[in-house]
Amino acid sequence: MSLKIHQDHGRFKQIVRGKIKANLRRYVQKGEMLGKRGKDTISIPIPFIDIPHFKYGHREQGGVGQGEGDVGQQLSPGAVQPGDGQQAGQGEGEHALEVDVSLEELATILGEELQLPNIERKGKEQVVAQKIKYTGVHTTGPESLRHFKRTYKQALRRQIALGTYDPSRPIIVPTREDRRYRSYRLQQLPETNAVILYMMDVSGSMGDEQKEIVRIESFWLDTWLRHQYKGLECRYLIHDAVAREVDRDTFFHTRESGGTMISSAYKLCKDIIQADYPSSSWNIYPFHFSDGDNWSADDTRHCVEMLKADILPHVNQFAYGQVESPYGSGQFIKDLRESVGDLDNVALSEIADKDAIYQSIKDFLGRGK
Amino acid sequence: MPRGLTPQLAQLKETIEGYARGYGLDFFETVFELVTYDELNMVAAYGGFPNRYPHWRWGMEYEQLSKGYEYGLSKIYELVINNDPTYAYLMESNAEVDQKLVMAHVYGHADFFKNNFYFQHTNRRMIDEMANHATRVRRWVDKIGIEKIEDFIDRALSLENLIDYHSPYIRRNPDPRRAEEEDKSNERVEGFRVGREYMRGFVNPTEFLEEQRRKVAEEKERKKQFPERPQRDVLLFLLEHAPLEPWEFDILATLREEAYYFAPQGQTKIMNEGWASYWHSKIMTQKALRDDEVIDYADHHSGTMGTRPGALNPYKIGIELFRDIEERWDKGRFGKEWDECDDLRARRAWDRKLGLGKEKIFEVRKHYNDVTFIDTFLTAEFAQEQKLFVYGFNDKRNSWEILDREFRKVKSKLLTQLTNFGNPIVEVVDANFDNRGELLLAHKHDGQDLKQDYARETLKNLASLWRRPVNLVTRVEGKGMAVRFDGQSHSEKKVEL
Q: Quick one: A163 and A198 in the same domain?
């Protein structure tokens, strides 16, 4: 049933959307930490939308309260709520409004605001799955799909019409004609598969701040790619001098103290792609984050070779994000820029601080790869 | 959409209505409608009405209510519309004891709506009127587009509290002497009539004549001013004098009408809720409650009456004050003798067995509004018993704290809060300010500054309706200040007040 209010609610949501868009840069910096996260939605605090009036500032005004306490005693935070408007019209307007936004919606907003192109999917969209959908009720069908309630109703209707129904002995006997069956249709779902391979340097030089930047950035990359592909998988690899695959939680919270050999991560990445994701049917997105410090120039050379030979030919786009850290030399991105920087499926981005995340997302996703 | 009552509820209604009438409550026919929580949220978002003009604000309200309900944080119990017949809503999923409670409460409101002085001029066909407003605004939307209309409504709503809350109760007769007066003002000033010519210099000394002439001149000057006297109903002033498009005029008039309709509910919030709570409590505990329902009832009743330190619960203050009045008039605790009695023991034991309580509270609900109610009946004992205090913001500690428990301060704070509905008084003083067609408003400062950012935004909205620069004279931190908005930007300058 549709209520009249849904129109007004729709208008309100539109306004909220506008607000989110206008403040997107700020939200991008907070990423996942925006608010409580539901299954497909995220609640975002937006500034309270209020209609201005001539009114008193609540702080100057104070008020009358009720309860225990001595003079001079502090009231617990939150105890004083701006009036409900009806009573005294004294809202301070400083409390935020929490609105639920679906991740889908958020991705759309992100796309519009950052002017991200839709991704050109690799290869043809293959028919991968078939889904059965019950679409109606027919008079024929297998007994296993008999619709009991409809059959019963049909029989009841017939018996009442024929006058054979006796309310005191309500026995209904369905005949062949009364039987109703569910009917289905096979739906073919075009499915495109995509995988993100997150790689992160967890050596000693990557601090908490750097990791948080990676985490926020990955939230937005996730959100956008999920919007573009149904069925997105994520794999997480961490490395210092050696690389290993971990779960999401470990990915963001591990801290090692060892040195850094980036080649270890690229090797693992290559192996995973070869083993699990044939590039003919998968859209593959490796994202690598580090502070740009590598063990040796040799190792870097090794990395570049591996990239050129084994990774780049198979992936949609390889992205490297260099998070600035006080300990990193920041050399790696320069090396990459020299060797593979002009290839069109390589995206490189330097992320100086949280403010730079906004631009960095654009760097990574701006090409529609 | 809303359904009629189930036979069981219909019977319940009959019973409760019988109890209510038995106690002497007097109300219009009261119609209960059965709704789902979603419908209830919608109606509540619409301010109690099933149909309002389109505006995003209702959507926001609805979102918050729905969320509050879904998270189990809040639940609307009663919703009743001042109308003849009075409409009220029952939520389908409520337990029977809740339905009883709501019905009993609603009859209290219904009685109040019908009998309180401040509601006498409200439109009792407001449900129809609101629906008409909705249709009218929708028609404009079809013609002009939702964007423009909504934007205008936003701006107009920004001014909706600039009405004269008392004007419905003031009778303004066209003054027949006016024309005569105008003639008079052209006469020469001659001072008092003098019987003996030699006394003239004494009866009408030159200074006195000067003074009189000056007054007359001033009066003439004032007549040239427009408006002649400061006008508090800013919306009316705009309707009459601002260069509005027909659709703008129509919508503004609509919003003004609605603001006046809701005004008495704001003026009698404490009394109205107190009265309804008093009666639901009475009806439930003396008549309607079954033994097995006591716990649930007590739970919900105390939930409604609950207080927080930083806010005054109108239900609680209202019900306690009505009970206090009843007790005082039953026991004769009023009048000169009572006031002058200083002996605490005697006061505590005071009982003249007058039994006037019931009569008195019915009288009070007829003639008072929140301001006069608190002013007349809030006693020192009551304030102490209810643990009332004044709180304020401590800038040093950056937190709210209890400032005072002294009765006089509590009462005066409370009265200030309630006066003019808690709104600052802002009047149109001059519509041709500086002889440039600018609008000048004056804020009657009563010790509290306006919220500056809001005031500036409001000025902006006002300017868009007046279509010329607007000025506001107010006081900020003790100093006179004139804020001007010229259509582009704000400017400020200090003024002497």
A: no
A58 falls within a domain: no
Contact B57 A8 (CB under 8 A): yes
* Half-sphere exposure for A47 (CA within 13 Å, toward CB): 11
User: Is A64 inside a domain boundary?
Assistant: no
The number of helices, as runs of H, and strands, as runs of E, in chain A is 11, 11
A257 shares its domain with A335: yes
**Residue B484 burial by Cβ neighbours in a 10 Å radius (0-12, 13-18, 19+):** buried
Interchain proximity A87–B314, CB inside 8 Å: yes
- Residue A361 domain-assigned (yes or no): yes
Residues of A in contact with B401 (CB under 8 A): 72-75
Q: Is residue A284 in some structural domain?
A: yes
Give counts: helices (H), strands (E), chain B: 21, 10
Q: What is the layout of strands, in order, in the sheet containing B86-91?
A: B30-35, B86-91, B80-81
- Whether B59 sits inside 8 A of A3 (CB atoms) is no
Identify the bridge partners of residue B34 per DSSP, sorted by sequence position: B3, B90
- How many residues does this entry show for chain B? 497
Please give the span between the terminal C-alpha atoms of chain A, in angstroms, as a whole number: 42
Given A115, A146, A171, the domain boundary residue is: A115
CB contact under 8 A, B422 and A83: yes
| The two three-digit tokens of residue A87, written as one number | 């009573």
Burial of B468 (0-12, 13-18, 19+ CB in 10 A): middle
Interface contact A8-B56, CB threshold 8 A: yes
Burial profile A13-45: b = 16 or more Cβ within 10 angstroms, e = fewer: bebbbebbeeebeebbbebbebbeeeeebbebe
- Structure tokens of B319? 């019900």
Residue A65 C-alpha from the chain's centroid: 45
Same domain, A153 and A244: no
Domains identified in chain A, total number: 3
Name chain A contacts of B45, Cβ cutoff 8 Å: 5, 8
Whether residues A180 and A273 share a domain: the answer is no
Please give the structure tokens belonging to residue B380.
Answer: 């020192």
Whether residues A184 and A226 fall in one domain? no
What is the torsion angle, in degrees rounded to the nearest 10, for the CA atoms of residue B390, residue B395, residue B396 and residue B397?
60
CA distance to partner chain B, nearest, from residue A76 (Å): 8
A36: domain range?
A: 1-51+95-115
Pairing of β B388-394 and β B399-404:
antiparallel
Structure tokens at B119: 């509601």
Q: Could you tell me where the beta strands, DSSP code E, fall in B110-243?
A: none
The number of angstroms, rounded, from the C-alpha of B305 to the middle of its chain's C-alpha atoms is 22
> Digits of tens for pLDDT over chain B (497 positions)?
567 889 999 999 999 999 999 999 999 999 999 999 889 999 999 988 988 999 999 998 898 888 888 777 777 778 899 999 999 999 988 899 999 999 999 999 999 999 999 999 999 999 999 999 999 999 999 999 988 999 999 999 999 999 988 887 777 655 555 555 555 555 566 777 777 878 777 888 888 888 888 888 877 776 677 788 888 999 999 999 999 999 999 999 999 999 999 999 989 999 999 999 999 999 999 999 999 999 999 999 998 898 877 778 999 999 999 999 999 999 999 888 888 888 888 888 899 889 999 999 999 999 999 999 999 999 999 999 999 999 888 888 878 888 889 999 999 989 988 887 778 899 999 988 888 889 999 998 887 888 888 899 999 999 999 999 999 999 888 889 999 999 899 999 888 87
Which single residue is written with the structure tokens 């001029």? B121
